[in-house]
Design a protein that fits this description.
The structure is a homodimer. The first copy, chain A, is α/β, with parallel strands linked by helices. Helices cover about 20% and strands about 30% of the residues of chain A. Chain A is elongated, with a radius of gyration of 31 Å. Chain A starts with a helix and ends with a strand. Chains A and B meet through helix 3, strand 14, strand 15, helix 4 and strand 22 of A and helix 3, strand 14, strand 15, helix 4 and strand 22 of B.
Chain lengths: ~425, ~425
């Protein structure tokens, strides 16, 4: 381990687990705001929801047909129909005072309230109407074709927990319970900077020795996906004063500041120094690959993440550290929202650095009743095409010497 | 089958496959617009992307260290170091005219361009600087610690295909290639109506015989997720003229109109009639459960979907029919974007209607090296809680008599 440490230039590396524990213990929840349920997609519920009505709110018909007393249908068959009297109609949405007596039937639509006295609904197809009487061709048990009040959800039942990511189906549930407003946590405001003298903005002409900045657009997309609001996204020159000024300026109106680049131990890696001077370094150097140079700190209560400048390392460390921190601020109950699938690995994967978490990009192929995880050819942590040509990432634990062909692995799919 | 048809009141049911084939053959692609790459998250690429630069654009250093001629390091070891002369520095982002000769070294940062004449980089940790000379402690092969021009992606390589859903990693790739604008298909404008006299808006006081409208909020959320723009979302009374007026009005500025409710064969199900009068019914009645009453049609070139009023049926038929149609308009290469996972089913699932596709809501549990799909207790297609308490949906094919405990199944996870 000592040798490894020397090689990457850090005096000490923290395990990811310890770094996250320390980080999460210092993250306060954002305040609550009330928003329109219809605009709550992808927001995070801030309170538990208890059903305060019965669902359905009344006994209702599950079919188009006739509300009857089940006993009036007993022993009915196509050959021996029972005859009852049609005494009225109840339409959907109606609150009816109609009362049903023995020997009577009331025409009823799917979803309409069951009249007092009725305990079953005979379907149109199982009956026949002749002037003012109804022929019943099927014998029904009591309760048949009736959705009972509270059958779906009883009043008082807890239905959603705080910390839930609101999707279409949760919005439907909240709406069906009559909610038009809902409490969620406010979105954290986030500034993003990429530092590097080599960086050009997309759209500029390519110059010798320069490359295009892809980290700001990528991290911005990820921040949005993880529930933050990007208020600023820029590149900064590798100049200590320039970086410090931007940092302090952004600290004035951001809750989180994300840097990519300038966080390692090269001559122009000023960020560790700046954060030490202006605030506090919580962790610098994490035993993960890619992602080792990550720095986590605070400046004036603003959370600072310095991610590596190489795009894949920035991507992986966002997914493992910054993204979960944003979701912690939002009160999410699941901090890593990625979908996991089980697969078997298609080939041996040796790893060289024991003591490090390793993140392996894989493509997922379906073969009959199994998913195969196929390692994507790796050329370095700068290669963005290894992300676009992969479906997800496998974590290899620090004590694992690698993976053997056929091993079961959990693939965390790239977030969508 | 005849008996089944009679029971649900349709004279003829179409297979989902046939309905989709007919539908998709009539859907034109939306026009192309050019947008900022940074705002392209979740949009759909409208053209193939070929890399028109080499990535990296120049030979660059993969380490902080010294650019050297590899031959100057041959046979070097900590005990037998080789000594060369320090002749300059190349910073990152610099375009340098420095030329390296045998016996010389140039200080170089990660990402900086390799000077002419150099063919390897010795890491800082494997060397030592003494005034104007460098001690080399390791023997390097030519090419060591150099990322060659075009190593990640060669100029002219196809990198992304039209129809790709743009995620963070695609945005990073496009930015790294210098793109600031990108071609995508315009989003279809979509109007949503829920019909039913029983419907109350969330926030209103509950009244006898009435229920809250959950379909408009749910379908709106799904439309956004699938790439459409909701321009209108309302409830309509079960009144033929009212429904017809809204439909014709919305047809003036929508590309797609979605109704929920009013599409079956009850007395107040006016939609089939209205669409027959004002346009063309493509399909009415599909052999799927839930979802059988779905109607697909056109009014003045506007695509009309009438989905069932029961929320789960509306949800499932959106995922299987309306959602893929929206993605067809957008030119997506994958029409159903849901993530699939393999699981084994935890208990027998009998199905009653052969000839129908059946959709089963399941919860997914991880057990050691397997995912278990646990059927969610079903009470009917109106029960929204069966969606919020499930993770995905299994499709049971028309010829399958059901599932046996332990069968392998594909679970399509609810879209996020």
């Amino acid at each position: 381990m000592v040798n490894k440490l020397r090689k990457i230039g850090f005096s000490k590396l923290t395990s990811l687990e310890d770094a996250l524990e320390k980080l999460f213990s210092q993250i306060p929840l954002n305040p609550i705001e009330e928003i329109d349920v219809r605009k709550s997609i992808n927001r995070v519920l801030a309170c538990d929801i208890v059903c305060d009505i019965d669902l359905p709110p009344f006994d209702r018909s599950a079919m188009d047909g006739f509300a009857i007393k089940a006993e009036d249908s007993f022993n009915a068959s196509p050959k021996t129909p029972k005859k009852i009297k049609l005494v009225g109609t109840i339409e959907i949405g109606e609150s009816s005072n109609l009362k049903l007596n023995k020997g009577e039937g009331i025409k009823i639509s799917t979803g309409a309230p069951i009249p007092e006295g009725a305990d079953a609904v005979i379907k149109i197809e199982d009956s026949e109407i002749k002037e003012k009487s109804i022929n019943i061709y099927v014998s029904l048990p009591p309760g048949k074709n009736i959705s009972k009040k509270g059958e779906d959800i009883k009043k008082g039942t807890p239905v959603l927990s705080k910390g839930t990511d609101l999707k279409a189906e949760h919005i439907a549930l909240l709406a069906s319970l009559g909610f038009n407003k809902i409490e969620v946590r406010t979105k954290p405001k986030i500034s993003i900077f990429s530092s590097g003298d080599e960086l050009l903005e997309p759209g500029e002409a390519l110059q010798p020795g320069r490359i295009y900045n892809s980290n700001t657009p990528m991290i911005s997309a990820l921040v949005n996906l993880y529930g933050g609001t990007v208020i600023r996204g820029e590149t900064v020159k590798d100049d200590k004063d320039a970086i410090k000024n931007r940092l302090l300026e952004a600290a004035g109106n951001s809750q989180v500041i994300i840097f990519t680049g300038g966080t390692s131990v090269g001559t122009k890696d000023y960020l560790p120094e700046i954060i030490n001077e202006s605030g506090m370094v919580l962790t610098h150097g994490i035993a993960m690959r890619p992602g080792a140079p990550v720095l986590i700190g605070f400046v004036e209560n603003v959370l600072i993440f310095c991610l590596p400048g190489t795009p894949v390392a920035a991507y992986v460390s966002f997914l493992k550290i910054t993204g979960p921190a944003i979701r912690k601020i939002l009160g999410c109950s699941v901090l890593d929202p990625r979908v996991e699938i089980l697969a078997t690995i298609k080939s041996d994967v040796p790893v060289s650095g024991l003591g490090f978490l390793h993140y392996l990009r894989v493509k997922v192929e379906k073969k009959e009743n199994i998913f195969l995880a196929v390692p994507v050819k790796l050329k370095g942590s700068g290669v963005i095409s290894s992300l676009t040509s992969s479906d997800g990432i496998i974590e290899i634990l620090p004590h694992q010497e690698g993976l053997k062909k056929g091993d079961f692995v959990l693939v965390k799919l790239h977030p969508e």
